[in-house]
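Hi R.,

Here's the input for the guanosine-5'-triphosphate complex you asked about:
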Amino acid sequence: MSKYGVMVMGPAGAGKSTFCASLITHLQLNRRSAFYVNLDPAAETFEHTPDLDIKDLISLEDVMEEMQLGPNGGLIYCFEFLMENLDFLTEALDSLTEEYLIIFDMPGQIELYTHIPILPTLVRFLTQPGALDIRLCAAYLLESTFVVDRAKYFAGTLSAMSAMILLEVPHINILSKMDLVKGQVRKKDMKRFITPDTSLLDDDPADIGRKKADVDVDMDTYGSTQDKNALMSGATFKRLNTAVAGLIESFSMVSYLKLDCTDEDSVQSILSYIDDCIQYHEAQEPRELVEDAVEDE
Ligand SMILES: Nc1nc2c(ncn2[C@@H]2O[C@H](COP(=O)(O)OP(=O)(O)OP(=O)(O)O)[C@@H](O)[C@H]2O)c(=O)[nH]1
Ligand SMILES: [Mg+2]
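And here is the predicted structure with guanosine-5'-triphosphate in place:
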C-alpha cells in the first residue's frame, strides 16, 4: 500500500510552516486526512499541532548546549541523529493508509538543500519501495519579494534547482507570499519570473545606479559600506549573475507556481499540482456518498 507525502522546503522565512498550516486547514475542509510531521527542531509555535515532531526525538537547544554548537551546526547534528534513529519515522508513518497526505515541514537552513547529503538519504529512505514506500513530492518555496532584487531572485532560483537535482523526486517550485507583490510587479514582468528569463538582468532597474557608479571596485578601498555596495553592483557581480542565470536557463528545469496562503483558491491550486505529482487520485477508492447528500436527493 502506497503512502502519499509532500516535503515542504525552502530558505528561512519563505513561508513553509504557514503553507503547511494552510494546506492542512484546506485538506480538513475538504474531508481529507493530513499527517503533519515537523522536522524543524527549532520550530516552537504551530497553527496545527504536529502529529509527529522531531523535538520529541532530539532538541536543538540541548544539542547546542551539550555539544557546544551554533544553531546551524546544531541542526545538522539533529538530522544526523535522526538518520541514526529512523525507527522514529517508521513507527509513526508505517501504519498510515493511502488516504493520508503526509506533510513534512522542513527547516530553513539552506545548506540542507545544497551540499549536505542528508536530505537525499532521508528522501531515499522515505520513498524506498517495500519499506515506507511514500510517493513523495518536493515543494520548494521561494519568497516572491525576491523578485524585487533580480540578483537575489536568480540566486534563490539556483538554490531551488540545486534541491531538484539533489533529491530526484517529483518537484514543484513555488513563489510564496504573492499578496506582498500584488500590484508592484507588472503582469508581463511577473511571467518572466514565473519561468526564469535571463534577459531580466539586461533591463534590471538596479543597473541605473550601477552605471552611475561605473564600478569595478579597487579592492584596497573595499571596506566601507559604500564600497561594499559598489562591489555588489559592480561589473564582476553582473558577470556572476549573468553566468548564474545562463546556468539556470541551460538546464531549463525551474518554473514557479504562485502561492498566496491567504487565498483558499491558491492553496487548492497548489494542492492539485501536488496531487498530480504523486498521482494521489488514482489510488483512491470511489467515496461513498455522505448520508445527508443521499437524503437531499
Ligand atoms: N503576507 C504573507 N505573509 C506570509 C505568507 N506566508 C507566510 N508569511 C509570513 O512570513 C513569515 C515567515 O513564515 P513561516 O511560515 O514561519 O516561514 P518558514 O519558511 O516556516 O520559516 P522557517 O521555518 O523559520 O524557515 C511569517 O511572519 C508569516 O506570517 C503569505 O502568503 N503572505
Ligand atoms: Mg517553519
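One thing worth noting: Strands lie at 3-9, 33-38, 52-53, 100-105, 134-143, 171-176, 256-258.

Cheers,
M.
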